[in-house]
Every structure is written in structure tokens, then in C-alpha cells.
Design brief:
By secondary structure, the protein is of the alpha+beta class. The protein has 14 helices and 10 strands. Helix 3 crosses helix 7. The radius of gyration is 26 Å and the shape is globular. The structure holds flavin-adenine dinucleotide.
């Protein structure tokens, strides 16, 4: 009997340190009006303290250059650093660098690790992941126009990508491109390391989004054209045609890391909801006395608890059986968690009235970010569909036209099964 919801006291202590540190040191970063150089100086000083605590880049196992906490502990940590949009960079596990470092750690050659992974883990360079294209449905990335052709000792890339997060500030991009258009859909593409200073990498713009002001300092989602971009043959990651296998591995844990951070965001909004409900009076009583507000609090608490358990369960599945075995659980929490995050922030805005809508409070920004959660790493609909397909795979249509549970039919069968006993019972009357 191995069910267990407890955390070792030593790790609890680390979580307490993180919680204090994020609230006291990282929250203030959100409201400082400084230039990027000053901001990064502040971030670096906080990163040094995280490294001293042994909490840096916790998403990777030690043999791959990280701290080796595993996904469940990581879930508990991300729940804390998800409270602030700036905490992940302070803890060295911000997207998309965290997913990219996993790709390089698992599939990179020793030379690729030396040149790109270790500096990335150290926070000295930044990266982007360039897969989605404007002219094709990102939900179905097997259809893609970007190509990579081998010419001598070089790969030549041509294509048009967008929504490459952090593309403008990245030192290198991991680019997905078609290498064999005639192969089976999931064997068509490969992944490449493209340094951003390679001739032909044209970073057109950061696409303005709902996130708005937060995407300052060049953080944002860029549109990039790759025009006759020549990279060494050695910049292929893994094997030719392995792009989707690697993407699946990258997006599995990557998705759940987002879900873990959403728990922290939702918690922060929930705290604001409860505090305001107690503070604000209307019609002679605090808002907390209104049944509607009580319902919001109770519904939010139940949904957050469900999301937390689903997230930690998916994390446990990954730790125990690997991310491929946890695909259903990851998809479940990806769409469910995004909705919980959205709904809790929405209720927190509502209880604050017009103040909730204003940028005097962080809720409107949280709300704008939460909207994207239903799109990135696969839209809700695709994850729902994937969950439903996996579930249906374990079912069969009952024979004939009657539902299996049809009560008159079952009653007849039950009478037949117990006929002898029923007869005896009647005879004894
Ligand atoms: C903030 C943000 C950051 C991102 N970062 C990156 C990044 O770093 N790198 C990168 O490569 N991409 C990135 N993306 C792109 C993201 O992965 C895609 O937007 C996503 O995969 C959806 O693709 P699409 O936008 O082309 O929408 P489409 O594929 O055109 O889908 C549009 C809509 O169609 C509907 N739909 C699609 N499939 C189905 C279905 N099977 N059933 C029912 N309805 C369906 C859904 O409602 C969906 O929203 C990012 C996006 C956002 C918003």
C-alpha cells in the first residue's frame, strides 16, 4: 500500500524557503520600473541565491546537469515559482529554455551539450523553439513548409515561423523542418540547432499580443523567416526524421510544467479573491457574506484542489512510467488546468469590481496571460480529443442495438440466473 500525500521534512523546508524568497524578493521585481540592464542585474543576484540553495534548474536529473528532483517535487516547486511571471527565470527553469535544455540533454551530442546546453543551464545564453508556422495549423504540426536540405556538409533551411517565444533575445533556436516530405507524417521532420547570428535568420518582429506590456525587454513571440540558412551538418539533433519523437518528449514534461505554474497563479488570484471578499462591504455586510461570493470561493477551492491532484498525479506517472505513458494524464490537466486558472482569475476580477479590471492590480495581466494557456502547447480542443480517443480505445460497442445496461433485459437475465432460488423463495411462501 504505497499511497502517500506527504512530503519529506527536508524538502518541506526547501519549499518554505522558496515561498518566502518568491514573495519577498521576486514579487517586487514585477512592479519595478527599470531598464533591462538593471533588471537583469537584479535577476542575476537572485539567481546566485537560488544556486546557493541547490534549487537551480531543478527540471533536469543530475546526470543531465540539473538537481534531479523528479516531476512530483518539481510540481511542488513550480507551484511556488508559478506565482510570479519572473520567478521561473530566477530559478533557471523558464520556458522555452527548460524544454530546450531537456532536448539537448537527452538527444544532444557531447559537442552540442558543451556549446549550447551547459551555457543554457548556467543562464548565460537564451533559446527559442521554432515549430509553429503562420500558414499551417499549429495544432497539426505534421503539416509544415519549412525544409532542411543537406548540401555537402551543411544543412540549408528555408521557411517561415511565428510565435517563437523569446526568439528576439535567443542566442540559438531549435528549429523543426521537413527533411523527408515522402516519409510517414511523423517521420518527415527533424530538429536543428540554429544560432541566431547565422546569415539568413531574419527575425522580423515580436508579434503584439494580449500580454502587452509584460513582454518588455524583448520577451515575446517572434516571427522569423529562415532564408537559405546554412548550418553545419553536426547541428542536427538526434537522427534525421526524429523531430516529432523529440517534440513529443519535449512537450510532455513542458506542458505539465506550465500546469504546475498555473496552480501558483491561480492560488495568488484566489488569495486576492478571499481577502477582498472580507475587506469590501456592500449592502451593510462584507462581500464574503453573499452566497454568490461564497460559491465562488468554494468552487474555486474545489477546482484548484482537483487541478492540483491531477497535476501531481500526472507528475507521478511521468516519474514512475515516463512521459509517453502519461500522455492521457498530461492532456487531461493541460485543458482542465487552463480552465481552472482562467475561471479563478475571472472570479477574483469580479469580486474586485472595476479595480479588478484596472492595472492598479495584477489581475488583469494574469487574466490576459491565462487566455494564452488555452492555446499554447496545443489548444484545449486537441487535448480533449486526444483524451477522448485514448479513453474510447479501451471501450467496445455493445453487440446489437440495446445499451448494455438496459434494465428490462438485465432483469430477465437476473431472473434466469437466480431462477432456482427465486422458485424456492416462492414455494416457501
Ligand atoms: C503565448 C504563446 C506562445 C507560443 N510559443 C510557441 C513557441 O515557443 N514555439 C512554437 O513553435 N509555437 C508557439 N506557439 C504556438 C502554439 O503552439 C500554437 O498557437 C498552437 O499549437 C495552435 O496552433 P495555431 O495557432 O496555428 O492554431 P490552429 O491550429 O490554426 O487552430 C485554431 C483553432 O482551431 C481549433 N482546433 C484545432 N484543432 C482542433 C480539433 N482537432 N478539434 C476541434 N478544434 C480544433 C482550436 O479551437 C484552435 O484554437 C505559442 C502560442 C502562444 C499563444
Amino acid at each position: 500500500m504505497a499511497w502517500d500525500f506527504s512530503t519529506e521534512p527536508e524538502f518541506e523546508e526547501k519549499l518554505r524557503w522558496m515561498d518566502r524568497f518568491v514573495r519577498e524578493e521576486v514579487f517586487p521585481l514585477e512592479v519595478l520600473d527599470v531598464d533591462e540592464a538593471t533588471f537583469m542585474r537584479l535577476v542575476r543576484s537572485l539567481q546566485a541565491r537560488v544556486k546557493e540553495q541547490g534549487l537551480w534548474a531543478a527540471h533536469l536529473p543530475p546526470e543531465l546537469g540539473g538537481q534531479g528532483f523528479g516531476q512530483v517535487k518539481l510540481g511542488l516547486m513550480h507551484e511556488i515559482d508559478g506565482m510570479s511571471p519572473w520567478a521561473p527565470i530566477v530559478f533557471g527553469n523558464q520556458a522555452p529554455d527548460s524544454g530546450n535544455s531537456e532536448v539537448l540533454a537527452l538527444y544532444g551530442t557531447p559537442e552540442q551539450k558543451e556549446r549550447w546546453l551547459y551555457p543554457l543551464l548556467d543562464g548565460r545564453i537564451r533559446s527559442g523553439f521554432s515549430m509553429t508556422e503562420p500558414m499551417h495549423a499549429g495544432s497539426d504540426p505534421t503539416v509544415m513548409s519549412t525544409t532542411a536540405v543537406l548540401e555537402g556538409d551543411e544543412w540549408v533551411l528555408n521557411g517561415h515561423k511565428w510565435f517563437t517565444s523569446n526568439g528576439m533575445i535567443a542566442d540559438f533556436l531549435i528549429v523543426m523542418a521537413v527533411t523527408d516530405p515522402d516519409a510517414a507524417p511523423h517521420r518527415r521532420a527533424s530538429m536543428f540547432i540554429v544560432p541566431t547570428d547565422t546569415p539568413g535568420v531574419r527575425r522580423l518582429r515580436n508579434i503584439p499580443t494580449m500580454a502587452g506590456g509584460h513582454e518588455r525587454f524583448g520577451y515575446g513571440h517572434s516571427e522569423i523567416v529562415y532564408e537559405d540558412v546554412r548550418i553545419p551538418r553536426a547541428n542536427l539533433i538526434g537522427e534525421v526524421g526524429q523531430g516529432f519523437t523529440i517534440a513529443q518528449m519535449r512537450l510532455g514534461p513542458g506542458r505539465i510544467h506550465h500546469c504546475m505554474r498555473w496552480l501558483g497563479q491561480a492560488r495568488r488570484a484566489f488569495d486576492m479573491l478571499c481577502e477582498r471578499a472580507l475587506q469590501r462591504e456592500a449592502f451593510g455586510a462584507p462581500l464574503a457574506a453573499q452566497e454568490t461570493v461564497q460559491n465562488w470561493i468554494a468552487d474555486s477551492a474545489a477546482e484548484m484542489q482537483a487541478a492540483r491532484l491531477m497535476t501531481l498525479h500526472a507528475a507521478w506517472m511521468i516519474d514512475r512510467y515516463g512521459s509517453a505513458a502519461a500522455r492521457k494524464e498530461i492532456s487531461l490537466i493541460k485543458f482542465y488546468g487552463a480552465k481552472v486558472l482562467h475561471d479563478v482569475i475571472d472570479r477574483a476580477i469580479q469580486v474586485h469590481g472595476s479595480w479588478g479590471y484596472s492595472s492598479d492590480l495584477p489581475l488583469e495581466e494574469m487574466y490576459r496571460h491565462a487566455r494564452a494557456a488555452r492555446l499554447y502547447d496545443g489548444p484545449d480542443e486537441v487535448h480533449r480529443q486526444s483524451v477522448a480517443r485514448r479513453i474510447l480505445h479501451d471501450y467496445q460497442a455493445p453487440e446489437g442495438w440495446l445499451p448494455r445496461e438496459h434494465i428490462p433485459t438485465r432483469r430477465e437475465e437476473a431472473r434466469r440466473r437466480f431462477a432456482e432460488l427465486l422458485d424456492q423463495a416462492t414455494a416457501n411462501l
